[in-house]
Amino acid sequence: MDIKFSSEALATANKLIARYPQGKQKSALIPMLHLAQSEFDGWLSPEVMDYVASLLSIKPIEVYEVATFYSMFNTKPVGKCLIEVCQTSSCWLRGSDEIVDHLKKKWNIEVGETTSDGMFTLKTVECLGSCGTAPMLQCGSDFHENLTVEKVDELIEKLKSKGERSSYLKSLVNS
Amino acid sequence: MAKLTIDGVEVEVPDGTTILNAARQIGGALVPPAMCYYSTLKDTGGKCRVCLVKVSAGSAKDPRPMPKLVASCRTPVADGMVVQNLTSPEVLEARKGVVEFLLLNHPLDCPICDQAGECDLQNLAYEHGASTTRYEDERRTFEKIDIGDKIQLHMTRCILCYRCTFVADQLTPGRVHGVLGRGDKSEISTHIQKAVDNDFSGNMIDVCPVGALTDKTFRFKSRVWFTKPMDAHRNCTKCSGKVVLWMKGNDVLRVSARKDQYGEVKEYICNECRYDHKNVSDWTVEGPRHIDKHSVISQNHYEKIDLQKLKVEVERQLEFQKGRQLPEANATLNS
Amino acid sequence: MGRKLLLEHINEPGIQTFDVYRKKGGYASVEKALKTMAPDAVTEEVKKSGLRGRGGAGFPAGMKWSFIDKKSDKPRYLVVNADESEPGTFKDRYLMEKIPHVLIEGMIVASFALGAKTSYIYIRGEYMYIVGILEKAIQEAYAKGFLGKNILGTDYSLDIYVHPGAGAYICGEETALLESLEGKRGNPRLKPPFPAVAGLYASPTVVNNVETIAAVVPVINMGGDEYAKIGIGKSTGTKLISASGHINKPGVYEIELGVPVDEFIYSEEYCGGIWKNRRLKAVVAGGSSVPILPADLILTTAKGEPRLMTYESLADGGFQTGTMLGSGGFIVMDEMTDIVKNLYTFARFYHHESCGQCSPCREGTGWMEKILHRLHHGHGKKEDIDILVDVAKKIEGNTICPLGDAAAWPVASAVRHFRKEFEAAAMAHSHAELVA
């Protein structure tokens, strides 16, 4: 199966490359990987990364190195909704442990695992810059703040009924 | 040119020389160790923090001390600089700390590691480390990966000096491996199943300071101190052809490049010379390789001494010692 | 009532848009700078204002700008550090989300002063929804002639682009940020060379925090000398404080530097006191990297003077009895807080975020997390406390970048000020053994 961007994504990719000086197109790597991740089921397979490497005229290993360094890039498949609960500092002070434990019990999975229906993956992450509205979680580009166990349950129900893959990519470039 | 003192010894070097290289010109015990810097690979150094020294006076123009310890392998000298290595207790404490960190997650599997006897980490720990470990938690492990039939990777032993990535970039036609992951989960890997075997990649084995990358064709064949290293060469169109043959009787167990007194290869060899010529008749043998008497490989090792060279060396050592109090090396290092 | 230089109009409906922002006096500093001032004069005003880097280091901004290599013929760059990942800090997010144009305006003035023709905003990937907000604001600025070729009819041209990160606290360190902007792993570089000489693409670059650049707007509008009249001593102007933790009113507060800490915590104008009618136990005043202080030392210095929200006053007492203003991430802890567990979450953070290049940080942060994990779960030993402090000491100062220090300082200060809690945690194990 040949991996290729849709024409829309390709147009965005070219706009990204144009933002950097001539010969420095490698700078577009991280934005491109975000684009690729949202195009191809929320994760970066070796084939997808090889494709991105070809678009930027760099070696595949240079892409693998970057993809495995940054925590937002998934090099293994993930569920449709990646639920990222912040666990640092003020979020912990205001009860993030309770949120994580609730979700673990609700779905009967450990942190890092996906529910059996492939819908949700539970991840704990570090400070998301929402310390004043803690505890909170991120799903796609949306921040869900001032959480309680009830609010979490409401959110999960809503996401389940929508059944869509969450994306954090609303706009990487503006035309 | 710049004149500086290191541990009270004055030396004059060209501008742009690093403190480490200036110390190497003096030679002897005051040379800081180096686990990631490699003089024949560009941009190496600064990462392992083993070579940290104290600059108690930045230069004659600005004699303020530098606020933190600096990596001597990447800090250029300045005229009038005053550097302290062994004469600074702060430096020795820091070095002990760094050695402890390097050994923290190290598997300490010397009994089954091919590098034993020629391992920079063993030597470093012997000179600057503590005799027991305080670390009682789990040591990190990695899934074993196969990078081909020429180089063996033991990621648990790796100290992430990055030298192998520089070899791949600077000596081979293209890098296929890199450092993946982050923090202490960083690992040397190819991410997908791939062999690291393009030409000149074998030099990674020589530059690796520990037993993370070893010669697969030599694996478990012999302890290095039971072999007889011989200088040899052959006509090679791709490289200088100058090697060391590690022999047992008439068998060539391993071929490697020649390392200088600081363990650095100056002339790299191609993969053909390293792997494809294991017959002693393929080579012109020059004679026994000189082995430093501090190395375990020197046991039962005989070589012809050039008396003239010996005389020059003894005189040089006497000059070095003249009028200078060396600290009691054992007292400070093993506290 | 403190003056609000950045957040004055934050509640104006539509302040996110160019038109409303302009009507409220926005972009006046661009007109003033580009039409009536020379680039060096702009830098002079910033120097006179005493504005210090608001990201955490507090380095004088004007001085940083003056270091940029003017002799090189390579292009110059301004890069705005919007990587905000310091635990406890969320002011840049607030600013960019609610009033993005103040950042754009500040960037135009700063880029003009530095002679940069292309500037980037490096924003953390988790703030992806803000990328959209910034993109929209930038497009509006282009459309109204404040970006692009020949701004306002002058011969100054500027392009601004937004560049997202992908989840790495280390990319908040300026050289790691530049590495990331170049499409590589976020490994900090050795300094020297400094970015002012060889930064982005080995060209002269200045990296500044979002708030620092935003503050350039009031500095130019009112003049550096007027700006310097606000605040105390070398802490001039206003600062955005991100207040969080066990307080009644967490949020972002713009304060004039010099507000007493006591007032900041208890006054209704700011944090509104400790929640649930509890008592104050400890405060981390400037983001997780700065030393933690117990209640008595955060409210008054060791000399007995009331502590003020300034760089100097918070640092009074050095690391023995003081802390740092840092990023202004003000985390408040009440009397029920388990200091050992809190420190564990910090240690876990630094371990997760270490880039792994240098051995003290790579190995040391993992070790500290493991010790704290054991202490917290009752598997600790008395020796663990001294080993923990020693590990922190051996990391501090020996690393390539300040992340090592940032990991060490919370540990050293928590044990220094709350040693009994650590000893109790260690005893929990021994007690369990005795009872068994």
Your description of this structure?
The complex is a heterotrimer of chains A (175), B (335) and C (436). Chain A is α+β, with helices and mostly antiparallel strands and 175 residues long. Chain A has 7 helices and 4 strands. Chain A has a 4-stranded mixed beta sheet with strand order 2-1-3-4, with helices on one face. In chain A, a hairpin with a 2-residue loop joins β3 (137-139) and β4 (142-144). The longest helix of chain A has 14 residues, at 149-162. The two termini of chain B are 38 Å apart. Chain B has helices at residues 19-26, 89-104, 120-128, 163-171, 203-207, 271-275, 307-321, 329-333, and strands spanning 2-6, 9-13, 52-57, 70-71, 82-84, 151-153, 178-180, 187-189, 213-215, 228-233, 242-248, 251-256, 284-288. Chain B is 21% helix and 17% strand. With 335 residues, chain B is α+β, with helices and mostly antiparallel strands. In chain C, the strands form 3 sheets. In chain C, strands 8-7-11-9-10 form a 5-stranded mixed beta sheet. The radius of gyration of chain C is 22 Å and the shape is globular. The model of chain C has no long low-confidence stretch (mean pLDDT 95). Chains in contact: A-B, A-C, B-C. At the A-C interface, α2, α4 and α5 of A face α7, β3, β7, β11 and α15 of C.
Characteristic key phrases:
heterotrimer, A: 175 residues, alpha+beta, four-stranded mixed beta sheet, 7 helices, 4 strands, 42% helix, C: 436 residues, alpha/beta, five-stranded mixed beta sheet, globular
- The coarse overall form of chain B would be globular
Tell me the major beta sheet of chain B.
5 strands, mixed
Tell me, what's the shape of chain A? elongated
Number of helices of chain A: 7
Content-based structural category of chain B: alpha+beta
First-last Cα distance of chain B? 38 Å
Give the N-to-C terminal Cα separation of chain A: 31 Å
* Fraction of residues in H or I helices of chain B: 10-25%
Largest interface: A-C, 49 and 62 residues
Element pattern of chain B in H and E: EEHEEEHHEHEEHEEEEHEHH
Taking all Cα atoms into account, the compactness measure Rg of chain B is 21 Å
Number of helices of chain B: 8
